[in-house]
Amino acid sequence: MENQKDWLEEKHYLAHCLTIIDDKIKELLHKEKGFKENAGTIRKTFWDDVRVNLDTAEDVDETFMAIKQQVELLSDSELAQQRAIRNMKVYERLQQSPYFARIDFLQDGQQEPLKIYIGVATLLDQQDENIVIYDWRAPISSMYYDHTPGDAYYTTSTEEIYGKMLLKRQFIIKNGELQSMFNTGLTIGDDLLLDILAQNANEHIRSIVATIQAEQNKIIRHLRSRYLIVEGVAGSGKTAVALQRVAYLLYRYRNEITADQILLITPNQLFNQYVHTVLPDLGEDNMQQLTFTEYIEKRLGRQFQLEYPYEQLEQLLTEKDSTFYEMKLNSITFKASLAYKQLMDEYISYLSNKGLLFKNIVFRGERIITAQEIAEYFYSFPSSLSIPDRLQLVKKWLLQRLTKFEKTEWTKEWVEEAMDLLDTEAYTKSYSKLLYEGHFTENSFDDFDQEQKKLAKQIVKKQLKPLRNSIKHLKFVHILGIYRQLFDLNNTVYQKLQHLVPDHWEDICQQTLPNLAKRLITYEDAAPFLYLQDKIEGQQTNTMIHHVLIDEAQDYSPFQLILLQQLFPKARMTILGDGHQTIHPHTFDNPSLLNPKLYSEQAEKMILTKSYRSTKQIIQLTAKILNDGSEVEAFNRNGPEPSITIVPNEVELTAQIIQNIHELSRQFDTIAVICKTAAECSAAYKQLNRHVDSQLITHDTKQFKKGILLLPAYMAKGIEFDAVIIYNASAATYSRETERHYFYTACTRAMHELHIYSINKLTPFLQ
Ligand SMILES: Nc1ncnc2c1ncn2[C@@H]1O[C@H](COP(=O)(O)OP(=O)(O)OP(=O)(O)O)[C@@H](O)[C@H]1O
């Protein structure tokens, strides 16, 4: 009876909310029409209200002001229109499911409890006076995530409010219909969470707004420190929390920051697509997304050949020669280390006094200023001036020298030849340009000599333009040579810095020099190279970005972090990762980004120990792979035991996997066959695709669809699938200790089922 009464009461409240939403939509449609018409009218009559008069300076000012006023009117009207469209989207979302929870809170000292309905956005009543639905990010809503019925409190920007939570209720509302509701106790409706987690995987990660757990809520709303580190086990919701946190920051600082001032650093484009729907679903604009590779490409891609992280991984994962493997790994880990940064810093201070290399300034094959002259000029300034400051002075000097040189070229033979070669069209163009620039009038142009002179100047100027630009961009600094010099054992630099180089420095030099000779910047060289370049040429900074979130942070090196800190000097950072999923070799033996000691100021760390992605059975098996006693707490969701199948050969492997895929397809939407490398993937694809329709995911795949996917483990990073098939977990494939976490990462992508196959002997990680 009591239940029936509650049910009716809730249906009544829902109807009340839906009526308000309908009214708001009608009102908005009406307003929107008005805004549209208004903008249309302004556009049509734009020039009617502006009197263009350019006779005197005052008239020009007046005309300018009139135009400015009209433009402002138009943009106000368009902004209002955009706001209306945005609000409409919010109302439409609320129409489907206005709220997902209610708490009744009796504040200390008050008589009546407050009924707080919580949804993805705020809804005010028709008079815009009272809150009918609270935004999940409002301070008061946090009690829903943080407390169980009983004593509760929440924090506003100025104080803590105490009281008692009398009721905590959850709703499932779909298409505006109340489908179910339940009062919850200890945690946020385990039933609801269980229901959500049991669903099939999607091509995009979902918003978790209705079931955020208390420990996740702390991270989402954390504002204290400059650096927030989140270390969480596989599937603990780090990515989900990161996205909810962006939405929270946008709400909390709504008058201060916009979505494009928040940046999420992600592992690859596929991951970008995977996460890009959450914020729009919550009614917010998407933050910016960037991969480290994109950043490197942007800065170095035009001048150098680059090695991509997947290429580096592929090389190491397929390397059979242990000696070479060790050598390569040593080089990679050293170049990612703080010891290398120290070496680099010493090198930079050495360069302050000598050793900077420059390029000759060459025009049409003639050396106009030699590298030697530039070096002498550079080092003529006191070393108390920073290298970038001195380079600015050099730049100015070079541009002046170029201007002088330009004059000496006007009468050169090549200029005359160039003039003779000008066709009529080019000639007329040059002539018009000279007229336009006011060098002479049409009447004076009949003076042939003058015409020739001016044209000559123009030709020289044009020819020198690329050189002038490259000087402006400091291209006369031989940055590749400067970096290369560091690896030259015959150079005095080596003698000076010898005390800082590691034991295997000679090997590192031997590996590095041939690459640099090919103008190839390997992945391990990219961050140090950019660091050196910034210290020499002046730092590149982006002060627009207020907040940076680094997902899968375990895979960035300390050197990369330094670069990011320099690039975003004003940003606060949220750094999320899992040490057990470290797959990039540059992080081995280096301090992890998840270590607060790596940060010089305010770094707070929060830990997530519970995994929500996989069934208990999958979590139990995958925890064994770690072999270091780490505990992963499983959310209590059961499923079939993972299977391990040993087959004698590849033919049998293909046959069994195909059969398994057929069975899994009946139940699941997304089945991933995870291989070790891209090469293994394409071989497997050739076999499997004859029998099952599958998608091959490569390093440059930007999006995937539901279905059967074949992908290397590094591309599956951060993503999840209903069922995972590990293609070949044999001892021959996964045996190096450095591959343990790689294998763990692959297996932990499974939500409901995990099937592991091995040709002959199984990997030691599972024994
Ligand atoms: N509070 C929650 N409510 C509902 N679902 C959740 C919650 N927390 C996490 N999940 C779900 O658990 C799964 C794993 O989350 P997510 O991918 O964010 O974890 P992760 O820690 O980033 O994992 P990994 O490090 O393994 O990539 C996702 O499907 C996510 O929606």
UniProtKB/TrEMBL annotation:
GO cellular component: cytosol
InterPro entries, per the entry: DNA_helicase_UvrD/REP (IPR000212), HelD_bacillota (IPR048228), P-loop_NTPase (IPR027417), UvrD-like_ATP-bd (IPR014016), UvrD-like_helicase_C (IPR027785)
Key words of the record: ATP-binding, Helicase, Hydrolase, Nucleotide-binding
Domain of life: Bacteria
One GO process term, biological-process aspect: recombinational repair
SUPFAM superfamilies the UniProt entry points to: P-loop containing nucleoside triphosphate hydrolases
Name recorded for this polypeptide: Helicase
